[in-house]
Amino acid sequence: MTRFDYIAKDPVSWVILSLALVLMPHAPRLPAWTLFVIPLLFLWRLAAIKKPQRLPRKWLLFIIVILSSFAMLVHYGTLFGKTAGTAILAVLLAVKLLESRKRRDYMLLIALSFFIIVTNFLFSQDIPTLAFMLITVVILVMSLIYINQESAPLKLRQRFKMSLTIVLQALPMMLVMFILFPRISGPLWQLPDDAHTARSGLSDTMSPGNIAQLINSNDIAFRVKFENQQPSQNQLYWRAHVLWYFDGRSWEQGKLNPNPDPVLETFNAPVEYTVTLEPHFKKWLFALDMPGEAPVKSHYNNNYLLRADKKITSLYQYQATSFLNYRAGNILSPWEESAGLKLPVHQNPRTVALGRQWRKQFNQPVDIVAHALKQFNQQNYVYTLRPPLTPGHDSVDQFLFNTRRGFCEHYAGSFAVLMRAAGIPTRIILGYQGGAFNPLNDVLTVRQSDAHAWTEVWLENQGWVRIDPTAAIAPSRIEQNLNAALPKNETRPLHMHLDMGVLKQLRFYWELMDNNWNQWVIAYDPELQQEFLSSLLNKKINFADIVYLLVFTLTIVTLAIAVMILKPFQRTTSDPTQLAYEQFCRKLARSGICREPCEGPVDFSLRAMQAHPQQKDSIKLISRIYINLRFRSSNNKKQLEKLRHLIRKLKL
Amino acid sequence: MQELPLIPGFLARYIERWAVKRLPDTDYQATIVRQRLYILPTRQGLLFTTVLGTILLGAINYENSLTYMLCFLFASIGFLGMIYTHQNLNHLRLGAASAKAVFAGQAAQFPLSISSVKQHSHYNIRIQCKATDAICAHLEDTETESLLMLPVTTKRRGYIQLGRIKIYTEFPFGLFHAWCWVELNAQAVVYPEPDAHPPQYTHGGRQHGHQMTQQEGYDDFAGIRKYRKGDAPNHLAWKAIARTGDLQTKQFYAEAADEIWLDWHQLADDMDVEKRLSVLCRWILDADKQGIKFGLIIPGKNISPGTGRQHRHVCLKALALFGIEA
Fold it and tell me: What residues of chain A lie within 8 A of the CB of B118, using their CB?
């Protein structure tokens, strides 16, 4: 036996393999030192297979546990919560491995591996994660079999087949329970602070660079399904935040707008749509300019924004309506007037001076707006993801007069400063613009890379009017997408390169599947369960009904699978000769000649021949062939065929 | 006997008593049927269930769909494990044969045959008799029968019955313990334990028959005589055979006296029965080893002198069953 065989034969190798597999997806989230320590502990255990005296002493393990707990505490500031919790569990498992020698210990490790598997879903619930976990489950089950077979008669292939069979047989039961197990809306108790770690997403402030950062993220922000008509691309302004306050560098929401009632006059029928929002762990709901009324479990605020009552911690769906043709806030409140004109003193003097000059130059605010946009369009401004830095207080001055290269936040920000200096109340709007329609299911996917900033200016008789300065510089950003708007020679994020040709088509399919996955699997909550089961059974369903349904269906499915495995109707022999002869005996039994348990075939045939003298010959022949096949040559196909034929032909 | 998992001893004994009442009449073979096959979760099964419960709580708390999904998958796998464990034991047919005779204190090796009524594989079938260690058996679906030896420790001389054995398995997952009690009709003769320090054998206790003339011992060469059927082959006088061409047998003094009698009454009167049997047992073994023709006299039984394995067995069996057979 080679050294490798020796290692592969030891059950602990399988335990280590299982642990490595279940911990692997956690690796990017673990502190760097654990990526060194955990494999080291694994190797230590492997090295001790042949020489158990190499295993560390208890006190050493104790020190490792204390040291790593301390390191975790320093790294995360806590030992609880999902990130720190899985990290400390990973180390503890590796330490436990070093003192595991018996089946009992291995069983504990495998049981905890099952637990580690599901912790992966706290971080990602997409299809590839599930696929990887299912493969891991098959290997875990193989390990479980390996640990429990002492003298190892099952070969690797047999164990794999057995494990795969069991997992496949478990799937129908799993499906029934997944659909019918009565869902309870959680949480049952307060979750740790990091229960929902936010991924990079839209923020509620705007400072140079923070939207450009999002462009690299291909993550989906939300998906939209329109009820009837799809608005054109340049109407897709998804409103998220209204920023009033500028400190010279970044824009913030500032104080709450005390304006009591947002007034919205509408001129055409609303657009109706359903939004499936990825969890962003904030209360923000996104809607097209301008949302009509608040969906359920949310409210409408006086900046024409939608806010949910609770943080969005899991995939969330809402129905919204928006009016694309509107007049908003015809009457400007004093608070809005002062907030909409406020500028930090002694900052960006050149920009402020330019705005004041325009105010003198033009009579109408509309003309000022038009002139400003014209300036952006004609004066060599470049739309780019990588603008030069504009440090210091006068960043707007530097951008407008020196660098002239910027992204939507630069254009929106500087435009707002110009307008405020010219005496036009202006505010910044943050949100998303555009999105990509999937032609396969007409679902619009809006990604983090669609993040955008634009402005609203207040004009007499028109109320708050949306002005997007970016459209003046790079109209294709609004008409098509960001990729089209960027200069040809600019390096683009990876996901934009992948977005063409066959890959684009494949991506549509993938997104279609992903969307359905999200809608039906990830978002399967108490409400969806109720809705789905009610529509399935065509009646209103309550909690008790779901329980009955679960018990009933699960019983049937379980019985079916148990029958499949146990094969209670299977004959006790598989010898074809015997089967044929049993048929012969049954035929005779129907005519009243039963074979006694201790009666040999010869005696039986003699009795049968007496009872059926007209079939004497064939009974004799059948018995003779049977005896020949059964007791002399067991493998004669021709004789067997003849036996079967004779038995079929036998008429009593 | 191996305890049942998670069941306290007194309850396990109660369960066993109840289960034994349901056993069919003892036969040389038995088939495991569903009605007499019992299954319980093991300690590991309980651990697994606890982990599942924790996962379910996590799923509810984090409202995590895939955690629900995998929790249900694991539960289904565990449940299937129960069916597989049951299936692994069900439909096994066991047959037992009588074991070879052993001396008290040695383990009697009962030959067992295991076959599958339904011709599917059975792995890690463990068979245990009373306090002995379990033996492990496997039966691939291509095999028709598997033969193994079940050791049963013996304490006293006489007959030992195979009696009740426990067959159990925890394969494939170790989460469930399926077992079955089976009573098989097989027995073995247990000879008395040979006495370690027997009193010196002395001739003369015998009052009738041939009087022994030589006292020197059994090994002294006495001469050569013609071969008679039944003579031990290691006593053949090869040199004489080569010389004469006829079969010749060496004769020794003790043998020259023809035969010895191992007599119950030869031993001290105050010796108790078991001790006497032990000493006689040892004498028989010694005599047999040295190829001496011996006879045995015990109360109620008189075995005329002879040699060979069969004779030895007859004598030892007489000792083993002394006072037991009516």
Answer: 567, 570, 572
